[in-house]
């Protein structure tokens, strides 16, 4: 429920602010874009707060310092931004800020906490290619002051300038793919592989006066591959069945030539993990894996003697490896 509360706050801030502007995709001047990193806050629970999650929050601003997106992710402290402390970064959504919206349809970020490095990707309509979308990606190092409290918890904020004012570090993103449904190449140089997730929905049932859910259903959603543009419908194998707080399912395309994908969703962590075997069989390709911290918002209804929450999310971009 911690994830649901956080997502309700973010969803409220984002209501009605989805960007309708576009960016140039074809001309050289449109190859690079810039954000400024504004406020950053990291809170790590430390060893004495077993079971609590680390939280990273980042504000992305325009070059004129207008707040554009608020990015939040949570993970177990030991992961340090990597799924199960492995090789897949945990991506998360950046919601439009209340002060205004940017020029993007979707913005996501990931943080390698050990290296203090932030990765940003954004999808946008092409102003010079009607009907097409572009993907741009970029990274920078976070310059932070961190302190450790007596209980072992960690807290980090940006280092200021000499006069004490905040330092705004830039993130330059570079056009990586346009249009997004271009043919997938199996030869080098390989394109960056990712997905768009759409139509996310799941259900939670609660007894009145009881905070812990009586039951939860696994999610259903649609995945669109980038590049390639192939879509897959994803459903939970047994919607109301959980194993160790996790539900599993598969993603199938109507095209028999598209390999199926599998996914798992951890209810407690709000973590969605996706794996798909690539149709490229040479040594340049391995299985494609993406991990995302889902922040859905829930609406309450009544189902007999229980409350039923229907939880949904707008479209999000799910990355795979870092860049």
Please, could you describe this protein's structure?
The chain has 323 residues and is mostly beta strands. The chain is built from 1 helix and 21 strands. It has an 8-stranded antiparallel barrel. The chain starts with a helix and ends in a 5-residue tail after the last strand.
Produce the secondary structure layout:
Blueprint: H1 2-14, E1 32-44, E2 53-61, E3 67-76, E4 90-96, E5 106-112, E6 117-125, E7 133-141, E8 144-148, E9 154-158, E10 169-177, E11 194-206, E12 215-216, E13 220-226, E14 231-236, E15 246-252, E16 261-266, E17 271-276, E18 288-293, E19 297-303, E20 306-313, E21 316-318
Parallel strand pairs: 4-18
Antiparallel strand pairs: 1-2, 1-9, 1-10, 2-3, 3-4, 4-5, 5-6, 6-7, 7-10, 8-9, 11-12, 11-13, 11-20, 11-21, 13-14, 14-15, 15-16, 16-17, 17-18, 19-20
Q: Taking Cα atoms only, what radius of gyration do you get, to the nearest Å?
A: 20 Å
Number of domains: 2
Strand content: over 45%
| Number of helical regions | 1
Q: How can the largest sheet be summarized? A: 8 strands, antiparallel, barrel
Helix content: under 10%
CATH class of the largest domain: Mainly Beta
Gap from first CA to last CA: 33 Å
Which spans of ≥5 residues are poorly predicted at pLDDT below 50? 1-20, 281-285
Order of helices and strands: HEEEEEEEEEEEEEEEEEEEEE
Q: What name does CATH use for the topology of the largest domain?
A: AOC barrel-like
Give the overall average pLDDT. Answer: 84
Q: What's the β-strand tally?
A: 21
Q: Going across the major beta sheet, what is the strand order? A: 1-2-3-4-5-6-7-10
Structural class: mainly beta
CATH architecture of the largest domain: Beta Barrel
Globular, elongated, flat, extended or rod-shaped: what is the shape?
Answer: globular
